[in-house]
Amino acid sequence: MTPSNLDRRTFIQAVATGAGAVGIGKIASGQETASGEGSWIQPKSTILFQGDSITDAGRQRDSASVPNKQPGLGNGYAWMAASQLLVAHSDDQLKIFNRGISGNKVFQLANRWDADCLQIKPDVLSILIGVNDIWHRRNGKYDGTIATYRKDYDALLARTVDKLPNVKLVVCEPFLLECGVIDESWWPEFNPFREASREIAEKFGARFVAFQDMFNEAVQYAPPEYWARDGVHPSPYGAQLMAGEWIRVVNGSDADFSARSR
């Protein structure tokens, strides 16, 4: 898909109205969006969002044990996705949790995995992790490498499927936008983290949410600062775009951003 296929107004409308990226490709062609064919969201599903500050998004820890409540789900894409799911599946008794923690890297997920994942026993587990693994290395607070990321992530998912053999995994691509603290010097080091997340998703049969590909398309219609002022943490518009794309992937829709960008 190119800008000639989808003008800026249509793109922004899709985000602002809550459609997000769920139907962008089909909005342009006049077709309906995916209606749930192949969806992983089933009645009585427990859904868990995991990750770092992008997932955390200011959630209140003292509300974390109560599913489906905005304070415990934060103000970011996890809450926006959850709210859309809870409308679309109002009779399905979904339970949606957020356990993202700002600053986390993969090994820190592993350190709290028993309490913050395995005990919750999610039917659908979504993980977005990776930007701190490079950011904290660049600022001298972490000495992990891409090899560390691969090894730790692989071990975390292997441990997860061993304890929860029926869990459905959603691996989200870490992303950057070139604005704020991010400049072109980040890409040579960051791109291998993106590729590693995709390879890990394929290995474990996870659905892959290509957030970087999505934002690469988004900046054709609005500048990077519109979607993430500091280049890392999404604006409300960026978070809504992420929520829509996440739902589209989990619903099993085809013609994704990743495929269109290749």
TrEMBL record:
<dbReference type="InterPro" id="IPR013830">
    <property type="entry name" value="SGNH_hydro"/>
</dbReference>
<dbReference type="InterPro" id="IPR006311">
    <property type="entry name" value="TAT_signal"/>
</dbReference>
<keyword id="KW-0378">Hydrolase</keyword>
<dbReference type="InterPro" id="IPR036514">
    <property type="entry name" value="SGNH_hydro_sf"/>
</dbReference>
<dbReference type="InterPro" id="IPR051532">
    <property type="entry name" value="Ester_Hydrolysis_Enzymes"/>
</dbReference>
<dbReference type="GO" id="GO:0004622">
    <property type="term" value="F:phosphatidylcholine lysophospholipase activity"/>
</dbReference>
<protein>
    <submittedName>
        <fullName>GDSL-like Lipase/Acylhydrolase</fullName>
    </submittedName>
</protein>
<dbReference type="InterPro" id="IPR019546">
    <property type="entry name" value="TAT_signal_bac_arc"/>
</dbReference>
<dbReference type="Pfam" id="PF13472">
    <property type="entry name" value="Lipase_GDSL_2"/>
</dbReference>
<feature type="domain" description="SGNH hydrolase-type esterase">
    <location>
        <begin position="51"/>
        <end position="241"/>
    </location>
</feature>
